[in-house]
Amino acid sequence: MKNRIYIFDTTLRDGEQSPGASMDENAKVQMALQLDRMGVDIIEAGFPIASQQEFEGVIRVAKIVQNSHVAGLARALNKDIERAAAALQHAKKPVLHTFLATSDIHLEYKLKMSRDQVIDTVGKAVSLAKSLLPRVEFSAEDATRSDRDFLAQVVETAIGAGADVINLPDTVGYTTPDEIREMFRYVIAQAKGAEDVIFSTHNHNDLGLAVANALAAIQGGARQVECTVNGIGERAGNTSLEEVVMAMNTRQDQFPYECGIVTTEIVPSSNLLSMITGLIVPFNKPIVGRNAFAHESGIHQHGMLANAKTYEIMTPASVGHKRTDLVLGKHSGRAGLAKRSSELGFELNEEEVGRLYERFIELADKKKEVYSDDLRMLIVAMYSKAFEVYQLEKLRTFGEDPTVAMVKLKHGDEVITETALGDGPVDAACVAIEKIVGHTGKLEQFNLRAATPGKDAFGEAHVTVRFENKVYRGNGASTDIVEAAIHAYLNAMNKHIAFLQSQEINGDS
Ligand SMILES: [Zn+2]
Q: Which of 114, 155, 303, 351 is at 20 to 30 A from 395, Cα to Cα?
């Protein structure tokens, strides 16, 4: 029992705080379903007090998740805790996660509170949380830079007030493996009641030590690891779920613990996340990167042919690379399409299956064989469309130097057409879009890649666009790369417009 490690996934909360990684509600729901399928113990769905949209997003995730616990974050303030509890009451297994900083530097400059005030606030916040929901986690923000004895005192207070889980985060990514192992040992030994709660570790990767620190924390007594898919998160990111899980799996001799992750769902989770956020996984990223299992040197290839174990410490299949990819053809019916979508992690209602089917037939006409990745692109594109303020109806480009683009956009029931000149088709089409919507963005990053195999592959475009002082990521996919780029640009533009509209509604908060 004590050797069970709980996986607390915070992709939808901490991960979503990655610059530019914001996900809309539909994307969050799809990601939550995939996390549930992968077997994470807890899904942190968001920070309900942050905005109305965030509050509703947490409710939707809470309602749909079947197996995992669903957590929501709250500062140690009554209004935050009440708001989080209101969102989480829809979950089968809710967890209220409240936090307060414990390091002197945070007390003095950020909170302007004395140590006694912190103790008092933690006791009250945890008691309130516990009166509203059955399971409460308390995090001592910046724990690794806190005075150990004071930290133990705060932890004891939280346990006394009813906390079930105590998290000691390395908020700024500062600690080292030996230091964090000792911190957990010390606090667990000092704080009264420590044996009755689960200790949790939450690490940031500023020095590239997040995974190493998480593993060391486990050796120090932590039994819950907070992490994110692909390691996304604030700044340099968080502990990578896939790395920490596969390190434990591969080195059972060093880490004789169990966790409930279905490892073959790791790569599908990574793909889905990168598709919906536009944060592309580096080729050399452990476990999930395209090259993570590629053997290039002749000597390695020779060894691999003789026996894969010569150079392979885990198999690509064990983490879900190259899963048997049954091809769909024109004759696969709606039921087959719905079944395959659900295997890919998407739960679609009848109306959505109908819409998907139309797009699927269109694609199957262009492309004889439709792979799982093609299908995933279609679904993601369909989902993001549901949220689009402006939708691309038609795009035509002519000539070079300059290029003329004709763009037709749909806005509610209105269809608006514009033409513009530019340096090349993408530039010209962006200018035409800007004429229609009346906002101008600055394209800061532009990546194109083939998302599916073959010459008739789907091109996937990811862009970063700056509007005034805010930056948005946009994604688009199409068998035509210019069209993919324009979908991506329009997607970022729509996010900006949606943001401006939400500001108008919540202008007074
Ligand atoms: Zn964090």
A: 351
pLDDT of residue 153: 98
CA neighbor of 191 nearest in space, from 260, 272, 122, 285: 122
Name 478's bridge partners: 459
Q: How far is the CA of 53 from the centre of ligand 1 (A)?
A: 21
Give residue 113 CA to ligand 1 midpoint distance, Å.
22
Per-residue three-class SS string for 28-72 = HHHHHHHHHHHCCCEEEEECHHHCHHHHHHHHHHHHHCCCCEEEE
**What is the distance in A from the centroid of ligand 1 to the CA of 112?**
22
CA of 3 to the centre of ligand 1 (A): 24
Q: What is the pLDDT of residues 258-305, one digit of tens each?
A: 999 999 999 989 988 987 887 888 889 999 998 888 877 778 778 888
What's the CA gap between 507 and 245, in Å, rounded? 43
Distance in Å, CA 6 to ligand 1 centroid: 17
| Ligand 1 centroid – CA 142 distance (Å) | 10
Ligand 1 center from residue 203 Cα (angstroms): 7
Rounded Cα distance between 19 and 277, Å, is: 10
Second CATH level (architecture) for the domain 389-505: 2-Layer Sandwich (3.30)
Q: What is the distance in A from the centroid of ligand 1 to the CA of 216?
A: 18
230 Cα–ligand 1 center, Å? 14
Q: State how far the alpha carbon of 195 is from the alpha carbons of 166, 167, 258, in Å.
A: 11, 14, 19
Sheet order of strands, 442-450 included = 442-450, 459-467, 470-478
**pLDDT computed for residue 20 by the predictor:** 67
Ranges of residues in the chain with a pLDDT under 50 are 1, 506-509
Q: Is 208 helix (H, G, I), strand (E, B) or coil?
A: coil
Distance in Å, CA 43 to ligand 1 centroid: 14
CA distance 434 to 405: 12
Which residue ranges make up each domain of the chain? Answer: 6-277, 334-384, 389-505
d(CA 31, CA 23): 10
**What are the residues whose beta carbon lies below 5 Å from ligand 1 (ion)?**
14
Distance of CA 200 from the midpoint of ligand 1 (Å): 12
CATH code at 6-277: 3.20.20.70
Yes or no: say if 405 and 378 are a contact pair by the CB < 8 Å rule. Answer: no
Distance 123 CA to ligand 1 centre (A): 22
d(CA 508, CA 496): 19
421 CB neighbour count, 10 Å cutoff: 13
Could you tell me the pTM of the whole model? 0.82
Tokens 């949220």 -> residue: 387
